[in-house]
Amino acid sequence: MALDIGSAAPDFSLASTSGGEVSLKSLRGSKFVLYFYPKDDTPGCTVEACDFRDNLARVKKAGALVFGVSKDTLAAHEKFRAKYSLPFPLLSDAGNLVARAYGAFGKKLMYGKQVEGTIRSTFVIDEKGKVEQVFSPVKVKGHVDAVLTALRGEGAPVVAAKKVPAAKKVTVAKKAASEKKATSRK
């Protein structure tokens, strides 16, 4: 299920590394970034978290809070936060129920194989609890800059992109290479 821009954000209440629980209701009146990632202390997830860390002042200046969400336990989140000095709360979605509600869990390609898991996704939720922006699936490099652009209201709304299966990418690349060889032989 993909969320549409302007739709009500799915309700949630998740345990937080900041203590207690964070919920959609408790965040009413605040704009926030909710980013879903697969696993603490893995390469892509670490780069993404550190990019949010390094740009947190810019995100706050744009008027938003940041929350990372994964299925990891609060203990794992605390280790991850401490290791990389992450200054924003991480939320534990043990059963991936919130990720599923946001469309950030499902079938995806991983190393060319179809698997079920967390789809790296980011949602900007406005002060009224409405979805303002959707980034899914997320490519880590340059992602926080895209979120900042959206927070500042620059550029067109982002629509969830469709992934081209890896097999098709390889086929297109091979076809282009063979066409280039055929052209150079003429």
From the structure above, extract its key features.
seven-stranded mixed β-sheet; 9 strands; globular; 186 residues; Glutaredoxin; alpha+beta; 24% strand
Descriptive report:
The protein has 186 residues and is an alpha+beta fold. 34% of the residues lie in helices and 24% in strands. It contains 6 helices and 9 strands; from the N terminus they run βββααβαβαββββαα. The longest helix is centred in the last third of the chain and has 20 residues, at 166-185. It is globular.
- What is the CATH homologous superfamily assignment? Glutaredoxin
Number of strands: 9
CATH class: Alpha Beta
Structural class: alpha+beta
- Describe the sheet with the most strands: 7 strands, mixed
The number of distinct structural domains comes to: 1
- What's the alpha carbon Rg, rounded to whole Å? 18 Å
What would you call the shape?
Answer: globular
The CATH topology comes to: Glutaredoxin
> If helices are DSSP runs of H or I spanning 4 or more residues, what is the number of helices?
6
Helix content: 25-40%
Question: Unreliable stretches, pLDDT < 50, 5 or more residues?
Answer: 158-186
**What's the end-to-end separation, in Å?**
50 Å
Strand order, sheet with most strands: 2-1-5-4-3-8-9
| SSE string | EEEHHEHEHEEEEHH
Q: Let me know the average pLDDT.
A: 84
Q: Architecture, CATH level 2?
A: 3-Layer(aba) Sandwich
Q: Per DSSP, what share of the residues sits in E-state strands of 2 or more residues? A: 15-25%
